[in-house]
Design goal:
4-stranded antiparallel β-sheet, 42% strand, Rossmann fold, Neuraminidase, 28 strands, 400 residues
Length: 400
């Protein structure tokens, strides 16, 4: 992927921003092994067929060639009004010389990075048949200020914005199905209470403030209810409350050991959770129509934080091993367990991408807790953040 060709003056550096963002997206996607730019033979050629030689790329054993052209602010062929930027992307299959993609993208002058994310998704789609996931957001807990606050950040680790700023302990963020609200637990009034914030308006309301813990919220896919953990009567049990009023709808579990970390399937028919009813913590899946709960983890004495894949066929969870905590993926019935991390510090808090192709989780493998992105099979893993102090990432359900 040679540097983007700029058409006209670019005092704002839009061309470099778009190129750097697109290069990074393709690099971390796991679909490509990006050739080091220092190895490029071609220098300064065009982007359209006939303006460059495919041999310059076949010699480097390149299969897919991505070329881009940026029309910075003020280019009349992009936008006569002068408040938009454009970028053209061409994707070629070097072996045959075929064009896989030729498309123009247009965005506001300050949105070059988001335009690049859209380009990356289109490039991935042209090669794999499935669009990429860049441009999406993650909610997470950050402790960079010395307190644990909730933040929203872009998948590339940029665009960090506060959701909370109360100087207390805030944990367990959970997105509403429409991506417009976040639920989380806060200790700002000493007791761990559950709150919901509408991100656009900033309106915040208390959903559950019973004495004891009110934590690990998870929205029902219809958006009207929230499952959570409460400990009002001693052991932690699972409850369902109204997402608007906090009114209790039902109690899902009763006694028999600590029950935590509920997670609905995308069709709302099943609920995964962790329970100590059989001794050490293990993962269970409940059929919400029959009420039957089935244990699905049997390896190790401590398994927790289950999350069901968007298609309802797989389960990611955290298991304790001799080297710390690791992320595992298995079928929803517990079969075909795959260990995603191993000998990489503590790896916790997995969350699925909307297409089920990736997981994000926190990892201490480099000494500090960061958010990492992994393909669902674990073969490709890269850090999203690099500042330390990041935990409990959860992927927005809305596709970019």
């Amino acid at each position: 992927m040679p540097p983007s060709q700029a058409v006209g003056a670019d005092p704002e550096g839009t061309t470099s921003e778009i190129y750097d963002t697109l290069f990074r997206d393709l690099e971390i996607s796991g679909y490509f092994t990006v050739v080091d730019p220092d190895a490029y033979i071609e220098q300064g050629k065009g982007v359209e067929p006939g303006s460059f030689d495919f041999k310059d790329w076949s010699m480097l054993k390149v299969n897919v060639l991505v070329k881009t052209r940026v029309l910075p602010l003020g280019n009349t062929t992009c936008d006569p009004a002068g408040d938009k930027i454009c970028a053209d992307v061409f994707v070629y299959y070097v072996v045959s010389g075929d064009t896989l993609l030729e498309k123009r993208f247009r965005a506001g002058a300050k949105n070059g990075r988001y335009l690049a994310h859209a380009m990356a998704n289109a490039v991935i789609g042209s090669v794999t048949g499935t669009p990429g996931i860049f441009g999406g957001q993650i909610a997470a807990v950050g402790s960079q200020t010395g307190n644990k606050e909730i933040y929203v950040l872009d998948l590339d680790g940029r665009g960090v914005a506060n959701v909370t700023r109360n100087g207390s302990i805030n944990l367990s963020p959970s997105w509403s199905p429409d991506g417009k609200s976040l639920a989380w637990t806060s200790y700002k009034k000493s007791n761990p209470d559950l709150y919901v914030k509408e991100l656009a308006s900033g309106n915040t309301r208390v959903i559950s403030n019973q004495r004891g813990i009110n934590t690990s919220p998870n929205y029902h896919p219809a958006g009207k209810h929230i499952a959570l953990t409460r400990s009002a009567d001693g052991d932690s049990d699972l409850f369902v409350v109204d997402a608007q009023t906090g009114e209790q709808i039902t109690q899902l579990t009763r006694g028999g050991g600590i029950d935590v970390s509920p997670d609905y399937s995308s069709d709302g028919t099943r609920l995964a959770f962790a329970s100590e009813r059989s001794g050490g913590s293990q993962v269970y899946v409940t059929d919400l129509q029959t009420g039957d709960a089935k244990r699905v983890t049997f390896v190790g004495d401590f398994n927790t934080d289950p999350v069901i894949s968007p298609d309802g066929t797989r389960l990611a969870f955290v298991g304790r091993s001799q080297g710390g905590f690791d992320v595992y993926v298995c079928d929803l019935d517990g079969r075909n367990v795959v260990r995603i991390t191993q000998d990489m510090g503590d790896n916790e808090d997995p969350s699925w991408s909307p297409d089920g192709a990736y997981l994000v989780f926190s990892s201490t493998r480099n000494g500090r807790s960061e958010i990492w992105l992994s393909t669902a099979d674990g073969r490709h893993q890269v850090p999203i953040t690099r500042s330390g102090g990041w935990t409990q990432p959860t992927w927005s359900p809305i596709r970019p």
